[in-house]
Amino acid sequence: MTNDSSEIIFLGHCPDRVGxxxxxxxxxxxxxxxxxxLSQHSERGRFFIRIEGSEEGARQSIQTxxxxxxxxxxxxxxxxxxxxxxxxxxxxxxxxxxxSCPLEIISRWLSGDLRIDLRAVVSNHLDxxxxxxxxxxxxxxxxxxxxxxxxxxxQLQIIEENRPDLVVLARxxxxxxxxxxxxxxxxxxxxxxxxxxxxxxxxxxxxxYRRGVKLIGATAHFVTRDLDEGPIIHxxxxxxxxxFSVGDMKQVGADIEKQVLASxxxxxxxxxxxxWQGRTVVFH
Amino acid sequence: MTNDSSEIIFLGHCPDRVGxxxxxxxxxxxxxxxxxxLSQHSERGRFFIRIEGSEEGARQSIQTxxxxxxxxxxxxxxxxxxxxxxxxxxxxxxxxxxxSCPLEIISRWLSGDLRIDLRAVVSNHLDxxxxxxxxxxxxxxxxxxxxxxxxxxxQLQIIEENRPDLVVLARxxxxxxxxxxxxxxxxxxxxxxxxxxxxxxxxxxxxxYRRGVKLIGATAHFVTRDLDEGPIIHxxxxxxxxxFSVGDMKQVGADIEKQVLASxxxxxxxxxxxxWQGRTVVFH
Amino acid sequence: MTNDSSEIIFLGHCPDRVGxxxxxxxxxxxxxxxxxxLSQHSERGRFFIRIEGSEEGARQSIQTxxxxxxxxxxxxxxxxxxxxxxxxxxxxxxxxxxxSCPLEIISRWLSGDLRIDLRAVVSNHLDxxxxxxxxxxxxxxxxxxxxxxxxxxxQLQIIEENRPDLVVLARxxxxxxxxxxxxxxxxxxxxxxxxxxxxxxxxxxxxxYRRGVKLIGATAHFVTRDLDEGPIIHxxxxxxxxxFSVGDMKQVGADIEKQVLASxxxxxxxxxxxxWQGRTVVFH
Amino acid sequence: MTNDSSEIIFLGHCPDRVGxxxxxxxxxxxxxxxxxxLSQHSERGRFFIRIEGSEEGARQSIQTxxxxxxxxxxxxxxxxxxxxxxxxxxxxxxxxxxxSCPLEIISRWLSGDLRIDLRAVVSNHLDxxxxxxxxxxxxxxxxxxxxxxxxxxxQLQIIEENRPDLVVLARxxxxxxxxxxxxxxxxxxxxxxxxxxxxxxxxxxxxxYRRGVKLIGATAHFVTRDLDEGPIIHxxxxxxxxxFSVGDMKQVGADIEKQVLASxxxxxxxxxxxxWQGRTVVFH
Lengths: 284, 284, 284, 284
Hints:
The structure is a homotetramer of 284-residue chains. Chain A is an alpha/beta fold and 284 residues long. Chain A is 34% helix and 30% strand. The first copy, chain A, has helices at 20-30, 62-76, 100-110, 129-134, 148-162, 178-184, 204-211, 246-269, and strands at 8-15, 33-43, 46-55, 79-83, 89-95, 116-123, 139-141, 166-169, 188-192, 215-222, 232-239, 273-276, 279-282. In chain A, the strands form three sheets. Chain A has a seven-stranded mixed β-sheet with strand order 7-6-5-8-9-10-11, sandwiched between helices. A four-stranded antiparallel β-sheet of chain A has the order 2-3-1-4. A two-stranded antiparallel ribbon of chain A has the order 12-13. In chain A, helix 3 packs parallel to helix 8 (246-269) and helix 7 (204-211) crosses helix 8. Chain A starts with 7 loop residues before the first strand and ends with a strand. Chains B and D meet through strand 11 and strand 13 of B and strand 11 and strand 13 of D.
């Protein structure tokens, strides 16, 4: 959760050493910044920190904060960013035929529950077009029957036009090419319909049925070149019984998929996620 | 879950005695009915049973089943019903200002995830009208500033016109009068934004904050004359931490409210609920 | 849960066809047996049933029930069993160095929470001997440094002497040979310290850390010749964060392991599990 | 979780103002202390902080740390403490007849899972004496049939002799008097067998059955003069069905009670809890 009174969020990570907290919080104290929540974690020689709070003095722009902190970041060899908690993230959503995940994101955008600005919905099928259009979200149909290079060029163009902060794959059933990922240059979050690393690949519910598992799950992760191997953001599971057919699992699984995806997006919009070496730090 | 091959669901309850299962399943065997799932439970002298399965012989109508079973029901003093698992329940939804629960039900109706036919949305506010209308659900604005008798008459008229099987209160913030309940004569399911019986009444999140609880919850229940005292259908909770403000609780609470309400409706549409003496039997 | 008034539990499975429930419950009605709970499930042409209840007439022995039902079982080609819910299952427990799972089973045996009769504890290490002996459970040290054939012969001898209904592997770290399984001829339940099929084999917590999962779990399953591939009885997970080291995961994992193992044993003692074709039916 | 490399834990809270983090972490940087985890939270004008880490320079005693920090604490009007994460807390446990919670604590003490030193078990009944004595824990039988003043004097004497850091009420069924609490002057943690504030007082499972709830829970809290009103440390719930009798609820409830109590004690031994105005801050 983001503190209601917070005006600035700071995220950073750098090589660990003694005195980092003092150096960083000293900077904020000098700016008359009141820290409302601070989480810091060190692991394997790396230091991760998230700070949120309010300005006691005059409001300064994000740009000013970035510039003022720059010398410290150089000194500490730190990757860092400043954010306005009230800013809505620009999002482009990729879908296929399944309606439940896309509708969840659209609903939370409409209800204000997710602080996003949904710019466009891209799908390789027409199934969800009527509902999306009714809700006045721009819909782009990009079929994927042609060569990947050709249809990905169209997708990248939509991204270019909408300048999103984030692409969400809401049960988009095609694999993005490495060149797409390079060209897009923004974070991409995918929802996988299994508790990874169980049941990688196709038909996880079919696999789960055959193995007779008693819980099925979903995993939200950043997309990297390695299929289903990107850094995990959030996971959850739901209990199933022997009486569940594959169809039942799909239905119950759809519930957990959309909850997991929505939770991951909330963490992302609250600027609580840092990626590092194939894992994520997700602050509380 | 309902078995994919099921064609008929039977629900019944009566005073318990030896031989009831044999009597009832004997009837179904005589009709060449293949029982795919049977759950039976006895408690405090009452016998509860749910059967679903498929017809090996010629398909018979629900009406035929009801008539054929009638003599046995008389003999056993049993309340019973037969249902078609593919039938969509007609639903009228009551709302106020909050969008998240109504949108969940609408989304699940659109995605086919809930087997319902959403006939009308009634609200005492105009906040959610634009979204509801976009989705082509008939919207009725019934303000509640006048006397209860007068606006409830309008609500009852909408119910009469739509002949729903069920009314859903999706965060409708007014208490229904006893005469409304009598006149409506159909089940009404409400979502309460606390883990009942904790925090009965107003502002449960405010109460939860002050008490410092570590979990907040939601409760779906049938509406009876006693406020927040109706038979509970489903409940769930979510973990919160010390850092959660009342506003944060409301946001996280909204997630659990909509999940609990949707689960309760799914159980209802699957004909898995029997009310008895202030409690519910909810079959798996 | 087992109904407090139940005197007999019946479990059976056979090829599915119309009229099975009527045939079986007709038999019980003829014996003046009052069915308190009945669960029946059909899937892939197989019929599974569990019945518990009380005798209205004179008490009959388990042996009598078995004999009386025999002709019906032949007719239906049914595997079946009758059980006394008050009977304590004779258990032999295999352990290694880890104390937490064995102590959980011992505690629940002492508190009466698990309806078992713990006959012997076998370990290939001496670490847990002092605690086990204090609690007056016979302890057998069978080192596993010699050839498998030789030490398994000693283990089988202990099993022979104690005639258990069940062997529990409470974090026993050796793989049982196929010939051991054949010779033992009783169910063997193992607890695996991961959410199978994730992280099969050694060091699942190390694997989980590297993959950066957000939940870790445990799986109780029947032991078959295929390592970690036996029919799953119960699974559960616990949420972890980025701050969890492998050591932390082991500590939290130990909690979930012992809970999952205890739950699986409770289901087993309540006669709620049927194995069939690599999966389990676990009645509620 | 406590970081494996941590050597010192610092806990503090004081009135909030700008610059507190810088002041405190500046102190630690000056002592060449490497902060491995820092959590800070501000709410309602109060600042809460927990720091753990390792000393880069020479090891200093807890006493030295306390003295060195003293001037800063005076300046900030801060309540604070320093702890050695390897120190075992001295614990006295109060019980009645129920064995499951006491056995859980004893098991976790034996397995090393809880970093405690169990000094004595006090019970007003003799039921659990045999098991406790077998495990070589000093057992004190203090019957509670006499006047409260008289038996509480005996209990206080046992506390005095054992100088515990903590008293644990592991299903002790008597209410401690206000004068006992004053005289004991150490934290007392109780496990209540319901999800507070639901079902305050006697027979919560009986109450839960009548109300027909679908989840039952347990609550670990600090004991204050107001019965069942002390600051909540941890809560959890477990799902139940219509088929659960009061006896079944007690059995399943016992599982959740012992897990909740153990989790609360772990948080306490990890020095993650700060009490403030009837609520607790429990760091992750």
